[in-house]
Design brief:
Number of domains: 1
Number of strands: 5
CATH topology: Glutaredoxin
Shape: globular
Distance between the termini: 38 Å
Order of helices and strands: EHEHEHEEHH
Largest sheet: 5 strands, mixed
Strand order of the largest sheet: 1-3-2-4-5
Structural class: alpha/beta
């Protein structure tokens, strides 16, 4: 699957309606963004089960602000509608694959339950 353009009108629906969504926040004038773009595009072709979205921070300044983007490129990963990864910087292909593998393997329900338990003051199992 090729990457999809995300904006204010479809960002939330895309994140909540899909199991896993990776989002690249970028700008055309950003050298590292241009360097990361083909890596991101290539990964999208290898993982058709994952939605790969791109947000042009120049065109979508309000969305970038809401996402608290302070450096580009920034990669965010969402699983079951929850932000599970956010990191600025252009990743090489092997590092992007590590992120993808970790997000796929993550049991977000268990992680959220453990987080809720900690918030409630309950001890968690190690």
């Amino acid at each position: 699957m090729a990457t999809v353009t995300l904006g204010a009108e479809n960002f939330e629906k895309t994140v909540t309606d899909n199991e896993i969504v990776l989002v690249d926040f970028w700008a055309s004038w950003c050298g590292p963004c241009r360097q990361f773009s083909p890596v991101f595009e290539d990964a999208s072709g290898k993982h058709p089960e994952i939605v790969f979205g791109k947000v042009d921070t120049e065109a979508e300044q309000a969305l970038a602000g809401a996402a608290q983007i302070t450096s580009i490129p920034t990669l965010m990963a969402f699983k079951k509608g929850h932000l599970v990864f956010s990191q600025p910087g252009a990743l090489p292909a092997p590092a992007l694959q590590q992120v993808i593998d970790a997000v796929v393997a993550l049991d977000v329900d268990a992680a959220l339950a453990a987080q809720q338990g900690e918030a409630d003051g309950e001890p968690t199992e190690s």
